[in-house]
């Protein structure tokens, strides 16, 4: 038979329990829970009192009030200890209890004496004992079955945890709309890094990017988007940074090795986004897309954009006469970010001379556009127009 008590309610819902006799105590030792804390009057015979903590709680989580309840109860249930003042009560986690075959019934030792704490009980406090006794319930539990049920639940939880972990590990990244130029910044970074990914097509020409299901993923209705499990990121250059950072330990280090190199990579990524890309985008829209959509090309915009782009490329020429790549003598995201739209420039836009006429820019373009990763991307995910 086991006696169950409720600790002071203001401390939370805690059960304190003790066995009927030393035989019952043996069962309690055998089928205890990792959350159980064992109490005993030091150097005197006493009941074995247990406090069942909540899952995940440990020794240090016992509040002063609950500790006092347990110490009072164990003192009151010691024939000798109940009669004297100033008794010491020892307590330790159930897992620290050591029981060997040679020990007598009711005898117990500790694996680690450092895990045993002592609390001094000056005198019996009847108010505490009476309060605890009012909550007393007797049961004859099947301790072994209870323990086995908990073991089974823990095993199931561990299995579930493992399944989820495996699922997460197996989960491949998904990139939306790999065929379009902005998306290819992300795609080429994935390929450079040797990261497995899946693709989902979004037909911009049919306006699929404005459908509510897509807006739920990308509120601006733009591509690309990268989905990584529960995580989602948009803006092509942000995606590049995310991939390069997450998979830093594999493939080429596309962010630079030092803080100074990283600074240069960021600087040239910004140059691409704010100085190189806008005039090149204007050329792409007016020369490649306008005719497709039956719109007139704006010749003034074309002229001004070419002039602006030429000025930017002159700065690139100077930079690339000093370094092999934009951010230094190492290939980086800053270079890769240029690939998709420069492919339009030397291809459908028909202005390859802007690159070829600049010796260092031309050498740089040859190098980056001949990288295996880019070749794979431009072949596998050929531009739709
Ligand atoms: N700054 C964004 C630009 C994205 C962007 O403009 N994507 C274009 C395709 S290259 C798009 O989604 N256009 C569809 C639309 O505007 O409806 C990025 O780099 O990700």
From TrEMBL:
Residues 170-251 form the GST N-terminal domain. It is found in: Cytoplasm, Cytosol. CDD domains: GST_C_Phi, GST_N_Phi. It is an enzyme of class 2 (transferase). GO terms for biological process: toxin catabolic process. GO terms for molecular function: glutathione transferase activity. One of its GO terms (cellular component) is cytosol. Its EC number is 2.5.1.18. The keyword Ribonucleoprotein does not apply. Keywords: Cytoplasm, Detoxification, Transferase. Gene3D superfamilies: 1.20.1050.10, Glutaredoxin. Residues 258-385 form the GST C-terminal domain. InterPro entries: Glutathione-S-Trfase_C-like, Glutathione-S-Trfase_C_sf, Glutathione_S-Trfase, Glutathione_S-Trfase_N, GST_C, GST_Phi_C, Jlp2/Ccd25, NFACT_RNA-bd. The keyword GTP-binding does not apply. Its main location: cytoplasm. It catalyses: RX + glutathione = an S-substituted glutathione + a halide anion + H(+). Belongs to the CCDC25 family. This is glutathione transferase. It comes from Raphanus sativus.
